[in-house]
Amino acid sequence: MPATLDIAQIIEIAAVVFSMAAVVLAIKPYTANWPVAMAGTLLYAWIFFECRLYSDMVLQFIFIGMQAFGWWQWSQHKTSLIPISSLTGRQWLTESIVFLAAWGLWTTMLITFLPWLSVLLGIPIPRPAIPWLDSFTASLSVWAITLQVRRKWENWVLWLLADIIYIPLYLSVGIPLTALLYMVFLLLAVFGLRSWYRQRV
Known about the structure:
single chain; 201 residues; globular
């Protein structure tokens, strides 16, 4: 078996372990979830680049920025964390509009930017098979993590929806271990939803 394949497998296993540990820590909720999540996210950026899942690769770098902010935000409240709260009706409306706009923009970029970049670099870059689905899950995940940073319990509702979509998506591109991870994420999101909903103020 080629050494590069062994390295790829080790990296995916490490990414799975870090990512699962981060979700468990977030459910508690412990501030340590943020640096652990960042480690898994960096590994997944490499994995998705190798699989040519470019939207997921870009999403990992967005995650790293949000995770760094979340780490800083939660660290400011060492004695008492920001209380878990709910979105208001106006916040739901505003953020839903932003989500739809981001989804449309991301889809447009996937369809138009990649061919232009391919011509500019002079190398073939395959088009994403399902750009609207790639962009939907990416936009939904960004929304979910912004809610998690602000300790809104609804973040788990969005993670549930994203995980349901990600499982068949990752199976279709041949990353079964990551698809299995997202099955676990789906179960953890149920527990996270129950835990945060009960702790809301």
